[in-house]
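FORM 12-B: Structure-to-Sequence Request
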C-alpha cells in the first residue's frame, strides 16, 4: 500500500498504476521521440510524499521503526482480490448526467467511472511532455503542434442501447472534441477552444490533433487529461448527454441512479484492462449526503467507506473513536480558497477599491478560523502546492499589509458609496459560509456593509457565475495540477465557466498567453513568477487566502487507494476491498 506524508514543497509518490501498466510517457531529447518507462526509471523517478496513518496512533518511536517498516512492507505486498461494493458520499448536487457541463459528473461521478479518456496525469509531471496512458496505446508528438494518439485495440462500449457494445473508434474522439469545443455550457473547454486547431481521424484507431501553437500544459489535468472535457463519448449520445443513460467504455457501467439521491456503477467486463483483473472492486455506489454531520455519521456506521473531512476539527473525534479500524490520508491539498471581486462592474474596476480589499483581508484568519491553522497561506496568486512556481514571501508581504484606516481612505478617495451593501455569494458549504462571514467582518472594519448569500452549487454557477451577476464571493476551487487555470482565470478570456474571476488586464493577458507556449520549464517558471508580481502590482481581485491540510479517513479494508492533492479524478482501478 502506498504511504503518504504531508510536505510543503513538491508532492511526489510512486504510482502503482504505472507499475502495473508500464504507461508513463516521457518525450525524449530528440524531437518527436517518445519513451515508455515504468515508475522505477531514472527518467521519471518519484518519491512518496504522503503517508496514510492509522487513526488514533501516535508516531512510532525510533526503536520500533524497523518493525513498523516490516509491517508496512508486508501490507503493501498483500495480493489484491476482486469483489465488493465501495460506498462513497457525494456532497453537492447535480443537474444532469453530462460530465462536460455538470461539475459533479466531471469531478466525482460519471467521468471517473463510465467514460474513458486518452490519457490521465499525476502531479509534478512535466506537463509539456509527460502523461499516463488510458485509452491511448501510444502518443507521438511529431512537432510542437502535432499530437498523434493510437487507441488501444479491441476497446468496446458498454452493451446498452443505442450503442450496444460496438467498438470504440477514433471518430468518436473527434466528435467528442468538437462537441466540447462548441458546448457553451462547458465547465472547461480550454484545450478545445484555446489550443486545438483541428482534430481528425485518418483511420479507426488514430486521432491527430493539430494545435494552434505549442502548449506548455498539453498533458495537464485541465488540457488533454481533463476528466470531463476529454471524455470519449459514443457519437450516438452526443447532443443527448444531459439525460440519456450514460454509456461509455470506462471501467464501470452505470446500472442505477436517482438524480441527487444515489448513483450505482458496476464493473465493466469489457474494460480494456480487464485481462489484468481490473478494476478489482465490483461495484461503486455514491449516496448524496450534503450535511457534514450526516457524512460523519455515515462514515462511522460504514454506510460510506471513505470521507473527505470538510472541517478539520471533525477529525479528532473520529480518530479517537475508530482508532486502528481506519487509516487517514493526510496531505497539503491544491484546492484553494479565494476572495473574488467582479472587476467588470463597479466599484471593483477601481484599483483603489481593490487595494482597500487587500488592506482588510487578513488571510491568516481564514486558515486559523476555518482550518485551525492547518495549511499554508500562499505568498502570491498561485496554489502553495505548486512549489516550483512560488514567490518569495519577502517580495509579496508589502501587498498584504493590514491597515483598515488606509482602506477607508482609499475608499473615500474612490468615491465609494458606504450606503451600498456588497453581496458576498458562495457555494453553501461549512467552509465557504465561514469564509464569507470572515470577509463580512473584515470589510466592516473599513465601514463597508455587506450581506452573505449561500447557494447550492448548480444554482450559484448558473445564476451568478456564468451571468456575471455577482459582486464578490468567497469559495474553494478545485485543485489544479499546473499554473494554467489559476493564471487563465485572471485573463480577459478565461476559457472557463468562471468568465469574470480575475483582473482582465491586456498587458498581463499577453504574459499569460506567452506562459502557455513556453515549453522550457525553467523559463516558464520565471515567467509565471513575473506574472504573479504583475497581478499583485495591480491588486488583482482574486486573492488566494489558503491551501489547507486535507484529511481523508477511510476504513482500513479499503486498500491501494491513490491520493491526489489535485482535483483530478482518477479511475483508481487498482483499489480493492480486503473484506
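FORM 12-B RESPONSE
SEQUENCE OUT:
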Amino acid at each position: 500500500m502506498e504511504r503518504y506524508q504531508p510536505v510543503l514543497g513538491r508532492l511526489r509518490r510512486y504510482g502503482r498504476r504505472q507499475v502495473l501498466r508500464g504507461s508513463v510517457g516521457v518525450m525524449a531529447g530528440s524531437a518527436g521521440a517518445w519513451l515508455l518507462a515504468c515508475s522505477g526509471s531514472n527518467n521519471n523517478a518519484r518519491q512518496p510524499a504522503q503517508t496514510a496513518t492509522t487513526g488514533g496512533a501516535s508516531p512510532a518511536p525510533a526503536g520500533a521503526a524497523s518493525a513498523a517498516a516490516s509491517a508496512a512492507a508486508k501490507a503493501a505486498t498483500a495480493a489484491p482480490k476482486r469483489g465488493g461494493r465501495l460506498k462513497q458520499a457525494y456532497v453537492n448536487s447535480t443537474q444532469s448526467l453530462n460530465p462536460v457541463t455538470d461539475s459533479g459528473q466531471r469531478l466525482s461521478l460519471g467521468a471517473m467511472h463510465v467514460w474513458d479518456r486518452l490519457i490521465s496525469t499525476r502531479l509534478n509531471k512535466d506537463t509539456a511532455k509527460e502523461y499516463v496512458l488510458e485509452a491511448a496505446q501510444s502518443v507521438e508528438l511529431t512537432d510542437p503542434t502535432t499530437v498523434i494518439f493510437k487507441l488501444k485495440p479491441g476497446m468496446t462500449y458498454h452493451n446498452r442501447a443505442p450503442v450496444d457494445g460496438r467498438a470504440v473508434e477514433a471518430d468518436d474522439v473527434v466528435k467528442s472534441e468538437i462537441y466540447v469545443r462548441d458546448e457553451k455550457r462547458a465547465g472547461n473547454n480550454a484545450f478545445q477552444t484555446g489550443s486545438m486547431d483541428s482534430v481528425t481521424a485518418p483511420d479507426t484507431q488514430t486521432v491527430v490533433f493539430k494545435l494552434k501553437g505549442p502548449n506548455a500544459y498539453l498533458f495537464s489535468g485541465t488540457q488533454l487529461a481533463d476528466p470531463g472535457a476529454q471524455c470519449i463519448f459514443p457519437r450516438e449520445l452526443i447532443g443527448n448527454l444531459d439525460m440519456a443513460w450514460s454509456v461509455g467504455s470506462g471501467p464501470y457501467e452505470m446500472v442505477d441512479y436517482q438524480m441527487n439521491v444515489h448513483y450505482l456503477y458496476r464493473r465493466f467486463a469489457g474494460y480494456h484492462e480487464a485481462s489484468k483483473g481490473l478494476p478489482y472492486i465490483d461495484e461503486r455506489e455514491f449516496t448524496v449526503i450534503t450535511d457534514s454531520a450526516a457524512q460523519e455519521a455515515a462514515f462511522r456506521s460504514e454506510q460510506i467507506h471513505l470521507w473527505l473531512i470538510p472541517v478539520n476539527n471533525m477529525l479528532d473525534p473520529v480518530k479517537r473513536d475508530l482508532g486502528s479500524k481506519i487509516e487517514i490520508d493526510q496531505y497539503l491539498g491544491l484546492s484553494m480558497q479565494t476572495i473574488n471581486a467582479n472587476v467588470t462592474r463597479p466599484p471593483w474596476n477601481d484599483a483603489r477599491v481593490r487595494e482597500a480589499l487587500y488592506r482588510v483581508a487578513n488571510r491568516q484568519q481564514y486558515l486559523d478560523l476555518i482550518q485551525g491553522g492547518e495549511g499554508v497561506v500562499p505568498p502570491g496568486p498561485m496554489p502553495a502546492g505548486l512549489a516550483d512556481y512560488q514567490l518569495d514571501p519577502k517580495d509579496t508581504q508589502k501587498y498584504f499589509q493590514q491597515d483598515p484606516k488606509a482602506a477607508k481612505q482609499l475608499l473615500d478617495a474612490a468615491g465609494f458609496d458606504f450606503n451600498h451593501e456588497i453581496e458576498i455569494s458562495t457555494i453553501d458549504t461549512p467552509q465557504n459560509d465561514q469564509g464569507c462571514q470572515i470577509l463580512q467582518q473584515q470589510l466592516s472594519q473599513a465601514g463597508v456593509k455587506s450581506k452573505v448569500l449561500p447557494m447550492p452549487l448548480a444554482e450559484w454557477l448558473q445564476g451568478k457565475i456564468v451571468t456575471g451577476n455577482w459582486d464578490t464571493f468567497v469559495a474553494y476551487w478545485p485543485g489544479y495540477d499546473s499554473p494554467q487555470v489559476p493564471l487563465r482565470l485572471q485573463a480577459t478570456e478565461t476559457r472557463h465557466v468562471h468568465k469574470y474571476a480575475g483582473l482582465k488586464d491586456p498587458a498581463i493577458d499577453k504574459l499569460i498567453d506567452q506562459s502557455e507556449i513556453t515549453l522550457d520549464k525553467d523559463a516558464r517558471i520565471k515567467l509565471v513568477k513575473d506574472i504573479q508580481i504583475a497581478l499583485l502590482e495591480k491588486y488583482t481581485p482574486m486573492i488566494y487566502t489558503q491551501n489547507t491540510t486535507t484529511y481523508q479517513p477511510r476504513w482500513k479494508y479499503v486498500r491501494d487507494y491513490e491520493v491526489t492533492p489535485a482535483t483530478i479524478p482518477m479511475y483508481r482501478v487498482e483499489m480493492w476491498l480486503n473484506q
